[in-house]
């Protein structure tokens, strides 16, 4: 059942056009309150294809390395992995500018990478070392980058923040948009609807995006939501449902959405139908609420990286050897990053208290008696 | 009282002093900061069975669903057993109309629970982690707590019990380790209860469910598997708002709740061995309304008080206890009341071993009080 939903009408059939680029044809995306949806054709150049492949494969390998490190107990705590959903992060990044803004929930490693942070800083943050992107103080769920606001632990709480960022963009007139991501579980949180209302009322340039990976932790979407058409949940806000396993579909849809917002038409709701291979987090085996066969089926038929690779190969846009080379280079990069993450020292004890408030002079932190008097510097 | 002295535990903890650069980083992160000490087997409640904390909670819920036809259990992912397995088997046994999942909406869960309770059902709502209870804060404080008062006793939601896993767990970081009891202690109209062990958990949970007031029951998540005791299989209740004196002493009163009790047990032993100081250990059990009489009587006897909790020190519940005790027992105090609590920082990710009020900090505080 899941299979046909993901593939119906949403994949590109590539026409032959030569080695350096191809134009594909797609079926229509489901739209809500829109006259027309994203274009039915997309062009993929060889350079773009290889780039998307490299980024997706890096995210995949990074997540698998994190899985390995977690099982070795080098990463501890809570770790939510993104493998299977790479096309979403890469497609979105391909459609927006680095100066646009993005905010997501806790399944954030992929977005941290696409927003410009190196693999080794991400892995070092997971292991809690001082070279980590948040100085080792945040961990898996709290990673940040310029124009990337995290990395948020409380489900749904990041969406009103995203609307606020969009307000700032509108206020400053800088023609930027904000992509506010959330999951199918969070789609039932009250604060989302509050954000939808405000964004529509004030025509904020906010792209609300539901990454629907079919399961809110252990609960499937049918059992959690009265309506599983998440792209329609904005009611009075237009919406588009996109095949989230196809990086080109995602890119075209988000180009359309960004244009919609930048032209002052107000917010838009996107639903990316995607899938995660791992469980909700590393504590969840991921098979008590779904079957291994289902996971296998998605992996074999709709894997975003495999799909892109096969399309490029069948259109002679790249050779098997080139992909192999890219794979080897990525493996090396991730391996080095893991080395760094394992060997980097932990942040010094003083960091425990820093940056609680913004204060000009060091602030004495209460509670740290009788062991040590610690100060907070910010 | 059996004290389990584990050499590697103390050695590892010794290396936690800020000035040392220890190589055993992974080792440090694995050692728990306490050892669970089981209570003697209760004999007055009938036959017992070996259970850990989550199993004792399941047992309490099982008893409730069996005896009360209006009882319902709901929350995120409770149907398959819950993320901590507290509701395993209940759906199969009692049906999906009595044990069911809610969507991801804490405010909705509690609001819905209040409504169900007002209409007469015994509603047991689960919030997946106490850290996520804040969207429901308005519902709890403004709706649940004040229902009886504002309707002049016409309506009440006494049938509501909210359960949430609570407290540090070793690797929980900011949003899986919080202890929010102080936020709710500030709200007349609800009861806040925290057990220290499986036997206490089952009795107190059943008492909360039976109590005609909305109750919040925080379950120390680090003890879910670590705490194993012989727990009576039949239902029984332990009275609310009664603190329990676990160990009598004459020199210092120690007050704590939940996981911290086990830390304090070790502290009491250390104080006895190394300082010859006799400690009286009190488990507060019910945070709101708390048993002022037991604590004050104890302080009158000993003259010194140490309160300890994981939550940040400013505005933590120790402040309330401290203030009341100095009011009641001012002339009996030999030393200022000591509070050893979490720091005024968000619950840290990697710095957890430094943040938590471990036994060394408490021991140091006792030393200071004795030498005052």
UniProtKB/TrEMBL annotation, chain A:
Keywords: Carbohydrate metabolism, Glucose metabolism, Oxidoreductase, Pyruvate, Thiamine pyrophosphate, Transit peptide. GO terms for biological process: glucose metabolic process; pyruvate decarboxylation to acetyl-CoA. The gene is pdha1b. It catalyses: N(6)-[(R)-lipoyl]-L-lysyl-[protein] + pyruvate + H(+) = N(6)-[(R)-S(8)-acetyldihydrolipoyl]-L-lysyl-[protein] + CO2. PANTHER family: PYRUVATE DEHYDROGENASE E1 COMPONENT SUBUNIT ALPHA, PYRUVATE DEHYDROGENASE E1 COMPONENT, ALPHA SUBUNIT BACTERIAL AND ORGANELLAR. InterPro entries: DH_E1, PDH_E1_Alpha_Subunit, Pyrv_DH_E1_asu_subgrp-y, THDP-binding. It is an enzyme of class 1 (oxidoreductase). Heterotetramer of two PDHA2 and two PDHB subunits. The heterotetramer interacts with DLAT, and is part of the multimeric pyruvate dehydrogenase complex that contains multiple copies of pyruvate dehydrogenase (E1), dihydrolipoamide acetyltransferase (DLAT, E2) and lipoamide dehydrogenase (DLD, E3). These subunits are bound to an inner core composed of about 48 DLAT and 12 PDHX molecules. It comes from Sander lucioperca (Pike-perch). This is Pyruvate dehydrogenase E1 component subunit alpha. One of its GO terms (molecular function) is pyruvate dehydrogenase (acetyl-transferring) activity. It holds the Pfam family E1_dh. Its cofactor is thiamine diphosphate. Its EC number is 1.2.4.1. The pyruvate dehydrogenase complex catalyzes the overall conversion of pyruvate to acetyl-CoA and CO(2), and thereby links the glycolytic pathway to the tricarboxylic cycle. Residues 56-349 form the Dehydrogenase E1 component domain.
UniProtKB/TrEMBL annotation, chain B:
It comes from the Eukaryota. InterPro entries: THDP-binding (IPR029061), Transketo_C/PFOR_II (IPR009014), Transketolase-like_Pyr-bd (IPR005475), Transketolase_C (IPR033248). SMART domains: Transket_pyr. One of its GO terms (cellular component) is mitochondrial matrix. Its cofactor is thiamine diphosphate. CDD domains: TPP_PYR_E1-PDHc-beta_like (cd07036). Keywords: Mitochondrion, Oxidoreductase, Transit peptide. Residues 51-226 form the Transketolase-like pyrimidine-binding domain. Together with BCKDHA forms the heterotetrameric E1 subunit of the mitochondrial branched-chain alpha-ketoacid dehydrogenase (BCKD) complex. The BCKD complex catalyzes the multi-step oxidative decarboxylation of alpha-ketoacids derived from the branched-chain amino-acids valine, leucine and isoleucine producing CO2 and acyl-CoA which is subsequently utilized to produce energy. The E1 subunit catalyzes the first step with the decarboxylation of the alpha-ketoacid forming an enzyme-product intermediate. Heterotetramer of 2 alpha/BCKDHA and 2 beta chains/BCKDHB that forms the branched-chain alpha-keto acid decarboxylase (E1) component of the BCKD complex. The branched-chain alpha-ketoacid dehydrogenase is a large complex composed of three major building blocks E1, E2 and E3. It is organized around E2, a 24-meric cubic core composed of DBT, to which are associated 6 to 12 copies of E1, and approximately 6 copies of the dehydrogenase E3, a DLD dimer. This is 2-oxoisovalerate dehydrogenase subunit beta, mitochondrial. It comes from Sander lucioperca (Pike-perch). The gene is bckdhb.
């Amino acid at each position: 059942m899941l299979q046909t939903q993901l593939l119906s009408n949403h994949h590109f059939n590539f026409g032959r056009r030569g080695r350096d680029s191809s134009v594909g044809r797609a079926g229509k995306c489901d739209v809500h309150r829109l006259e027309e949806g994203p274009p039915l054709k997309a062009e993929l150049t060889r350079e773009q294809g290889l780039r998307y492949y490299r980024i997706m494969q890096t995210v995949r390998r990074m997540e698998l390395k994190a899985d390995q490190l977690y099982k070795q107990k080098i990463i501890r705590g809570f770790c939510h992995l993104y493998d299977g959903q790479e096309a979403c992060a890469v497609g979105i990044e391909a459609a927006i500018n680095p100066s646009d803004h993005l905010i997501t929930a806790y399944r954030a490693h992929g977005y941290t990478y696409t927003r410009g942070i190196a693999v080794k800083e991400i892995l070092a943050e997971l292991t809690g070392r001082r070279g980590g992107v948040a100085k080792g103080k945040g961990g898996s769920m709290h990673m940040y980058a310029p124009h990337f606001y995290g990395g948020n632990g409380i489900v749904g709480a990041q969406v009103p923040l995203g609307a606020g960022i969009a307000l700032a963009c509108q206020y400053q007139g800088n023609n930027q948009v904000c992509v506010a991501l959330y999951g199918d579980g969070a789609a039932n949180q009250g604060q989302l609807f509050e954000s939808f209302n405000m964004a529509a009322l004030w025509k904020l340039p906010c792209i609300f995006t539901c990454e629907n990976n079919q399961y809110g932790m252990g609960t499937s979407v049918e059992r959690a939501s009265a309506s599983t058409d998440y792209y329609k949940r904005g009611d009075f806000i237009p919406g588009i449902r996109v095949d989230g396993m196809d990086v080109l579909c995602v890119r075209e849809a988000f180009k359309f959405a960004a244009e919609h917002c930048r032209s002052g038409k107000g917010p838009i709701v996107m639903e990316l139908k995607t899938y995660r291979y791992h469980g909700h987090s590393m504590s969840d085996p991921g098979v008590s609420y779904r079957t291994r066969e289902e996971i296998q089926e998605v992996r074999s038929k709709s894997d975003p990286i495999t799909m892109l690779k096969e399309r490029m190969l069948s259109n002679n846009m790249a050779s098997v050897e080139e992909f192999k080379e890219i794979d080897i280079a990525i493996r090396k990069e991730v391996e080095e990053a893991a080395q760094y993450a394992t060997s980097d020292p932990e942040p010094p004890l003083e960091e425990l208290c820093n940056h609680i408030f913004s204060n000009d002079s060091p602030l004495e932190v209460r509670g740290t008696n009788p062991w040590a008097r610690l100060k907070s510097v910010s | 009282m059996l004290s389990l002295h584990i050499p590697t535990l103390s050695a590892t903890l010794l290396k936690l002093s800020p000035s040392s650069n220890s190589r055993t980083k992974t080792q440090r992160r694995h050692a728990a900061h306490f050892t669970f000490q089981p209570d003697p087997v209760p004999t007055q409640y009938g036959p017992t069975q070996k259970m850990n904390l989550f199993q004792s909670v399941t047992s309490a819920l099982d008893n409730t669903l069996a005896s009360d036809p209006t009882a319902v259990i709901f929350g995120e992912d409770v149907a398959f057993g819950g993320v901590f397995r507290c509701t395993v088997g209940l759906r199969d046994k009692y049906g999906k109309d009595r044990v069911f999942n809610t969507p991801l909406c804490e405010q909705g869960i509690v609001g819905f629970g209040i409504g169900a309770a007002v209409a007469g059902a015994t509603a047991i709502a689960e919030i997946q982690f106490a850290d996520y209870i804040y969207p429901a804060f308005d519902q709890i404080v403004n709706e649940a707590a004040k229902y009886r008062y504002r309707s002049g006793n016409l309506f009440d939601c006494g049938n509501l019990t909210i359960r949430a896993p609570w407290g540090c767990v070793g690797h929980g970081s900011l949003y899986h380790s919080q202890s929010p009891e102080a936020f709710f202690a500030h709200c007349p109209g609800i009861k806040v209860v925290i057990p220290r062990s499986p036997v206490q958990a089952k009795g107190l949970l059943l008492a909360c469910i039976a109590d005609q007031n909305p109750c919040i029951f925080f379950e120390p998540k680090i003890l879910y598997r670590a705490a194993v005791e012989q727990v009576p299989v039949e239902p029984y209740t332990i009275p609310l708002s009664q603190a329990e004196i676990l160990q009598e002493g004459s020199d210092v009163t120690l007050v704590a709740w939940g996981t911290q009790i086990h830390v304090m047990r070790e502290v009491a032993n250390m104080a006895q061995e190394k300082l010859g100081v006799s400690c009286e250990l009190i488990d507060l059990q019910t945070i709101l309304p708390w048993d002022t009489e037991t604590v004050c009587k104890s302080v009158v006897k000993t003259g010194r008080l140490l309160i300890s909790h994981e939550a940040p020190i400013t505005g933590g519940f120790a402040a309330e206890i401290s203030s009341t005790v100095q009011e009641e027992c001012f002339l009996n105090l030999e030393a200022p009341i000591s509070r050893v609590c979490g720091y005024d920082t968000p619950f840290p990710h990697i710095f957890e071993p430094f943040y938590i009020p471990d036994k060394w900090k408490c021991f140091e505080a006792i030393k200071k009080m004795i030498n005052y």
